[in-house]
Amino acid sequence: MPVTTTTKAPVTVNNTATNKNTVRMWTLVSLIIGSTVGAGIFALPQQAASVAAPGAMLIGWGIAGIGMLSIAFVFQALAVRKPHLDSGVYSYVRAGLGDFVGFASAWGYWLGSVIAQVGYATLFFSTLGHYIPLFSSENRLASAIAVSILTWVIFFMLTRGVKQAAAMNMVTTVAKLLPIFAFLILVAFLGFSWDKFTFDIWGRSGSSGSVMEQIKGMMLFTVWAFIGVEGASVYSKQARTRKDVGRATIIGFFSVLALLVSVTTLSFGVLTQEELTALGDNSLGGVLEAVVGPWGGALISLGLCISVLGAYISWQMLCAEPITLMAIDGLLPARFGKFNKNGAPFSAQLISTAVIQACVIVFFLNETTYTSMVQLATMMYMLPYVFSSLYLLLLTTRGKGMTHPHAGTRFDDSGPAVTPQENRKHLFIAIIAFIYSLWLFYAADVTYLLFGTLLILPGLIPYISQRIKNGDKWFNTFEWVIVAAVVIGACFAAYGLSTGALEL
């Protein structure tokens, strides 16, 4: 899972500029900020207010800060211990827990990416709907058709080898950061009220539930906001020194954390929790509009549209990456990983685009909201996070992962030795990250957990067929347990859908 494989604006890095030991610390910092701060921040005020009052919101950010920093350091530690694993973060999961768990993580991350793509397109057109009545919330069909057309146009562009230029990245990064900084300055000096922020700081008069319930509600939104924080670790091999990676991770992480906390905190000082909850998907624009008038909302909307549209092309291109990697690594049929004469992974892009189209139809028929798409996508992203944390925990306690069928290959437990002091540090990081990951699953709405298993289930078909073709054992004992859990969860989800007990 490279840094570009995130739900934020992916960062395109010129290969000629990232030769070994040439990436400077501040370049790594920019990778973290660029890949983490994306369109999701524009929806944060409404998302936070929908589940938590100001006090619980701040506690939620504190827990997320500790947890997500530990996850970022998990990937950094694994990059140090397993520098030969270069098929993205999913390769850590495969090396440590076997083929199927690695496959499920990559498959889940791919589907999360697809859902996120639809979510961002929905956010883009709902923002346009404030200015172009054709795309208003009352005319969802027009938005669904527009998303479909945009998706297929981009697909045909990508099959011709068209990629996002570095200039596009620069424009979209500036376009999203300038309105955010304008928001922070204007709201802090013109609109923030301490009395309003503290009026019902624990949400006792609202319907958000207990403080613990509010904190749990914040969890998935905070993960969504932080996806991509492992950016510096991905490029650790090209960094001038390993110390630069650690420093960049800390600087980039706390810069992003400060930005996210500032946005949500200031918003609660402008509008009440109920007023924030009632805002649309571009709630950042709604808050600024309440402070300075319509031009503030228009400014944020413009930044959001440019940011999302600029990232859409790169993100659709990168949706194909997990499929391509799994095909190259033999977990999916080789034809899924083939490139056309223009150097584009045609089959993987076609599959991804077709699934995006199917999601557009399903989400349109079910009137699925952007918030629901975020929560479902985040649940799928959590798979490589929790299993990577478990792998590091196994490495630090028993020196190896689970038994792997391909011992002696690059997926075995080889790697440079670490000192006892380093191992203790990695153990501490792994424990915190693993506990935090489990807490996120506990805090999640069970609906999204069940739908997540339902989305993984179809992947068993190409996976098992490829195992049969290769003459490999389907699953080991540990994997059978995981498969059983997936099937049981999928059955509950299917039953819930058929009876109407579950819906997105």
From TrEMBL:
Membrane topology: Multi-pass membrane protein
Primary residence: membrane
Compartments it resides in: Cell membrane
Transmembrane segments: 25-44, 56-79, 91-111, 141-162, 174-194, 214-236, 248-272, 292-315, 346-366, 372-394, 426-442, 448-465, 477-497
GO process annotations (BP): amino acid transport
GO MF entries: transmembrane transporter activity
Alphabetized UniProt keyword annotations: Amino-acid transport, Cell membrane, Membrane, Transmembrane, Transmembrane helix, Transport
GO cellular component assignments: plasma membrane
Pfam families: AA_permease_2
UniProt similarity note: Belongs to the amino acid-polyamine-organocation (APC) superfamily. Basic amino acid/polyamine antiporter (APA) (TC 2.A.3.2) family.
Entries under NCBIfam families matching the protein: 2A0302
Name of the featured protein: Arginine/ornithine antiporter
Source organism per UniProt: Corynebacterium kalinowskii
GN (gene name): arcD
